[in-house]
Structure formats: structure tokens, C-alpha cells
Predict the structure of Molybdopterin molybdenumtransferase.
Amino acid sequence: MTRHPTGFPMLVDVAQAQALLRAHLPPPATETVALAAGLGRTLATALSARVSHPSATESALDGVACRAADTVSATVSTPVALRVVGESRAGQPFQDTVGAGECVRIYTGAPMPPGTDAICPVEQLTDQGPHQVALRRPARPEDVRHEGNDFQAGEEVLPGGLRLSPARLALAAALGHAEVPVRRALRVALLSTGDEVVAPGSPLVRGQVYDSNSVGLQAMLRECGCEVQVLAHVPDSPHALETALAQAGGADLLLTTGGVSMGKYDLLRDLLIEQGQVAFWKVRMRPGGPAILGRWQNLPVFGLPGNPVSSLVVFQVIVRPVLTGQPVSPLRLRAASAFRTLPDKTAFWRGVVEGGTVRDYGAQGSGRLRSLSEANALVVVPEGQEVEVGDEVEVLLL
Ligand SMILES: Nc1nc2c(c(=O)[nH]1)N[C@H]1C(S)=C(S)[C@@H](COP(=O)(O)OP(=O)(O)OC[C@H]3O[C@@H](n4cnc5c(N)ncnc54)[C@H](O)[C@@H]3O)O[C@H]1N2
Ligand code: MOO
């Protein structure tokens, strides 16, 4: 890390950039939402089971419940006959005790009747009239699901801090919760800048570009569980930029794209350096090196580079882990090709994971947006580290 002549940090690394962004966001607050609204949110506190699952010892198969000891000799040529004394259905259990030589017809999820300890599935039974069945193999205790074998009432099952996926929401429901405590959604305002940037759907003249960054970033913010306020696009005008910043006043964070690099018209950079405060400018990464973090009055502003790949990669690598509280969790895979080394930057090269290895996607220009669709991973090559074919590399799946 070095310092700008005016004193703020420059050329920070990815971890420093994350830490500085974290320090500029409000401390996490909690709210309670219905399960249906929990997708993608971060669980604020651990959830314990209010009931056991299964709530009773039950059958895993459709068949008969009986005593295993009565059926050990059962084979296709010497079936064992049992007297059928009743039926246990899910929601309507058989209440009496089942005795030696007896069985109860039972269905998946129905409670095991008292006295029984094993199941023989319907495929292995021959009906011998309404009150007798013959078993062609022994009944098995393994086909009984014991009360609480998934989780027991009182057990802490979902730790705080987890991101709520569909499976975790289903688990929360099974634990007996209709609502979940989640971190309050961060309110993020989103602003794209640049004279040449036009809204999708409008006519495009040579030299202009459709505003793809806003679309990709808005979707990524929603995936992070944020409330997104999309501000009207601003041209390269200091006055328009200041007006837009004022509109984002109530947000926890303003995310911008464009205008942060070395050009004369990179106005966000000028505004933060000259009239705001800067927490850092430039990250030792590629793509995405020119990213900037600062404050405009009380509003934290994260300036993503305008290049489409750079903005989405910086979001993925720096912003997403901070907004969600979930660290990036790289895979380790063998390289099926060499990857370029940068002496003073960590590279996040687009790669293709296939057959358990990862290879270089090829065209790594920061304007090649299609690469982010055709590649399926970012390969992390730390500063100065050589990567040859067969070496292990860290891979972030896209
Ligand atoms: N002399 C130097 N030039 C540049 C440097 C440098 O270090 N020295 N850094 C380069 C790098 S790296 C990047 S990344 C870009 C970042 O530039 P800015 O953040 O200032 O972005 P702009 O100049 O406004 O735009 C760059 C590029 O991206 C297109 N763009 C902008 N906004 C959008 C949008 N919303 N949707 C789609 N595409 C967008 C824009 O048209 C430009 O082509 O700077 C390099 N230059
Ligand atoms: O970071 Mo720029 O992102 O290399 O094009």
C-alpha cells in the first residue's frame, strides 16, 4: 500500500479493500421476515429446533411393520406368514401393541406401532387374503426412521451468519419457524455514469454503449439480499453527478460505475478526492484496479470501474463478501493450462472449469463482457505467483 500526495491509501490489496468497505457500512441490524421473504438473506442468529424430526419413529417405506425376530428365516422359497391386525397411516397411527406373528400395514411416514421394530416393503409381500401376508425376505430395522434422527427438539441446527438458500429455508420451516431473524437488508443506491452510456432498448449510435453494468450489478445486489435504488444515469458533468449523489442520501451505500480511472473526464474520482473523503483509490488486482472507496458528505460511495468485466469482478471479489457477510470460498483445482502472472497485482482471470480442472478462458480484455457468460470461474493468481499446467489454483465459481 502506498499513499496519495493528499494522504489517503492507494494500491490496497483485496483484503484491505474489503475491510475498509466493511468499516464504512452501518453495523448489522436485525429484522424478522416471513420465510417466503428470507431467500438470499443472512440469518442473524442461530435457529434451534422447536420439534424433533421425524416427530415420531416412523416407516421409511410402504409395506408392513412387524418384529424383525419373527421374519429372519423368510426367503422366496420359504416365506414367513404374518397376521395383519390393522393399518398405520401418516396422521392416523395404529395405537395397539403388535404381538408375535402379527403385523400392521404401514405407509411411508406413518408412525411405527408399539411392539414393532422392522419394515418389509410391499414389493416383498404376497397377500394371502385380507388378514394374512407372506414375507419373501426378512423385515429390516434399517427401514425405520427413528424419532429425532434428523434433529432433536432443542438442538441448534442453523448457525447464525448463514445465507438462506432454498434448502435452509425449508429446514427453518421443518424446525418449526414461520419467520426468520435476518440481517436488515442494506439499502444500496446504484448509479452509472458516462456520456456514451445509454439505456438498453434505446437506439445506439457509433461510440455509444448500452448500460450493461447497471443491469448486472442490480441483479447481483438483489442476489445479495439488498434493497436497490437505481438512480437515473448521469452524463460526464460534475453538476449532474452532485445532484445524483444528493438523491442517494438515505442509502447505506452508493455504488457507481465509471469515471474512476486516469482520464480527464473521470469525474467521480475528482469529486471524491477534491470535495469528499477517500478511504482508498486503486486495488492491486486485475481486472478492476481503478476502484475507489470514499464518502460524499455522510454517504459511503464505492466507485466501480466502468469496464464491464472490471465492475462485475470487483463486485464479486470485494463488494459481495462484505454485503452478505459471507467470505468467498474458493475451490482448489488443478490448472489445465498455464495462467499469466502479474508482478504487482492479484489476477482474477476468467477460466473454464470442466472435467475437474480449470483452463484459461482466453480473451481477458476488460471490455469483453461475453467472456463472463462463456467462462464459469475466476482463477486467482496471486501477485508474482507462477502457475504452470498441473499446479493447484484457487477458483471462484461464477
Ligand atoms: N491511462 C490509463 N487509462 C486507464 C487506466 C489506467 O490505469 N491508466 N485504467 C484502465 C482500467 S484498468 C480500467 S478498468 C478503466 C476504468 O475506467 P473508468 O472507471 O474511468 O471507466 P470509464 O472510463 O468511464 O469507462 C471505461 C469503459 O467502460 C465502458 N462503460 C462505462 N460505463 C458502462 C456501463 N454502465 N455499461 C457498459 N459499459 C460501460 C465505457 O464506455 C468504457 O469503454 O480505465 C482504463 N484506463
Ligand atoms: O482493471 Mo481494468 O479492469 O484492467 O480493465
Q: What stands out?
A: The two ends are 28 Å apart (CA to CA). The chain has a mean pLDDT of 96. The chain has four domains: 2-26+186-324, 31-50+156-183, 58-145, 331-397. Residues 31-50+156-183 form a domain with the Molybdopterin biosynthesis moea protein, domain 2 fold (CATH 3.90.105.10).
